Amino acid sequence: MILFESIRWKNFLSTGDQWTELDLQSHNSTLIVGENGAGKSTLLDALCFVLFNKPFRKITKSQLVNSINEKGTKVEVRFSIGKEEYRVFRGIKPNAFEVYKNNKLVDQDAAAKDTQKYLEQSVLKLNFKSFTQVVILGSSTFVPFMQLSAPHRREVIEDLLDINIFSSMNSLLKDRIRDAQTQSRDCDHMLTMHSQRVSAQEKLLGQLREVNQNRQEEKQKKYDDNLATMQDVYKQKSNLANEISNIVSSMGDYESAAKTLSTLRQGQSDKKSELKLISKELKFYQEHDECPTCQQFIDKDFKFAMVGNKTGKGKALAEEIVQFNSDIKEATSIVSAISEQSMKLKELNSDLSAIERDYVRLEFENLRIQDEIIKLQQSTPNIDQEEEHLFSLQKDYNITKDDCAEVSRTLDEYQVVSNLLKDSGIKSQIIKKYVPIFNSLINKYLQSMDFFVNFTLDEEFNEVIKSRFRDEFSYASFSEGEKQKIDLALLFTWREVARMKNSVATNLLILDEVFDSSLDTSGTNELLQILRSLGNNTNVFVISHKGEILVDKFLRTVKFEKINDFSKMSDDS
Ligand SMILES: Nc1ncnc2c1ncn2[C@@H]1O[C@H](COP(=O)(O)OP(=O)(O)OP(=O)(O)O)[C@@H](O)[C@H]1O
Ligand SMILES: [Mg+2]
Fold it and tell me: 488 exposed, middle or buried (CB, 10 Å; 0-12, 13-18, 19+)?
């Protein structure tokens, strides 16, 4: 409960450079009287300005400065909440705003806006709108509850029920939801990126494996081709070997054949020499009858015998020479056949060694290929490296996925909490419970002012008013006096609820000109009765022109009057 103790102001509206100070706690009821413009309603502006930095009437802050003195505007209010004593001071020209708690300046370094927030949210626990709804009624600029928009009605009720904490939580939560949504979007982006990286790596790995497989297959094919070639080569080799062995086994001895030929040639040559000699001797015997050397006569018979002998020998020799010719021809053909075969053998042997070299080369090549295939199968450094990389990418992806799941879980939780904190959530459950209480209190106060209508606020704070004779009635249709009764009933209801909730309960109640305009005599009496029933905890201030009628109904009367253009206050107590 906020217990207002005193307020004072100077250079404020029509008040001059001397403090006007009003004790707010000393009397349960105070009547404030004075002529038009005397400075009575100034109290409301002083109170609203000092607490909320906002005049009650619709003027700017600078219009609060006294127009004659033009500076030094100061307002100070004292109040207590429980054991804590507060003093709030505000000034214009120079600007000042100070909050003292137990005589210690609060939060000197913080910006004025933060101190204002602290004052409204942590100390008073109500804002300008709620304050005016539970403390003030009836001045010309006052907006009655019934003329507030639905969201503003809700704001006032939330203050009264002390459930605006849910709204604060909701606005904090909105920031968190926004952050989480940003995170979630980032997450989606990251996840796509990681998953793209993983699939690109998988593709690369697939290609590497395919290349490896192709190379293995190529090598295997070369190996198989080599094997087939080797089989061919082997066949050729054994054919050649066979041919060679056939030639070797059928081939005669060159040495002896050559020797035979040479012997034959020598024999023929000998015979030819012999024939030459015999021919010479024959010629000698045919041409000579005496020896040219010894000149001895050659006997005719001898000569004849010798010619016959030599001719016979010559003939035999000639035949022998002819015989030699065919033998030599035969021996020559044998020798040349043997040498031809030997040439062929040489060729074949060279072919065989070429084939054998080929075979060995293929054998070596296949050994190498086998080795390479094993290497391709077993040791794949590129693939191993890329597999490792893929593994780390998958790990990254999984971590991101877990993180994203966490973010989306958090977001889900926030959504659940947000649903609870929404106007239709917990608050509406609480409000739902209070709405019947509001309605029964409002109707109770209406009845005590002899106004018999059935007034109901629904959960959206829209009113349904049923009169006895007509079905439904809107607030605007009622007369000014009736409207004032409804406004009063609501004011008392909010005060009652505030007292029950101990939320924005305060001792102060200021009614500005409520008695003057619309209320008739019986209405006035009923209102006075209600005011008396408010008890010792309330300090009522009634601003009125009807001083004469009301004066004996109040414990104190305060009078405002304007002297030399400045408002002055005098207190009868
Ligand atoms: N800046 C200012 N400097 C000096 N006087 C001002 C300034 N602003 C307003 N005033 C005057 O101050 C007075 C304000 O008085 P206030 O509204 O408190 O009168 P009131 O006693 O409530 O009168 P009523 O009975 O007509 O409501 C008016 O006379 C107004 O003209
Ligand atoms: Mg006034």
Answer: buried
All domains in the chain, ordered by first residue: 2-125+504-571 (3.40.50.300), 207-386 (1.10.287)
Angle made by CA atoms 448, 450, 454, in degrees to the nearest 5: 85
Residues with Cβ < 8 Å from 257, sequence gap 6 or more? Answer: 331, 334, 335, 338
The tens digit of pLDDT for each residue in 484-506 reads: 888 889 988 988 888 787 666 89
Q: What is the DSSP string of 419-449?
A: HHHSTTTHHHHHHHHHHHHHHHHHHHHHHHT
Q: 57: which 2 tokens?
A: 């009437």
Q: How far apart are CA 494 and CA 331, in angstroms?
A: 154
Asked if 469 and 435 touch (Cβ cutoff 8 Å), the reply is: no
Residue of the nearest CA to atom 12 in ligand 1?
A: 14
Ion ligand 2 nearby residues (CB, 5 A): 41
The predicted-structure confidence for 86-143, as pLDDT tens digits, reads as follows: 999 999 999 999 999 999 998 766 666 788 989 998 899 888 888 888 888 766 667 7
8 Å CB contact between 461 and 160: no
Closest ligand relative to 66 C-alpha: 1
d(CA 506, CA 498): 8
455 burial (CB, 10 Å; 0-12 / 13-18 / 19+) is buried
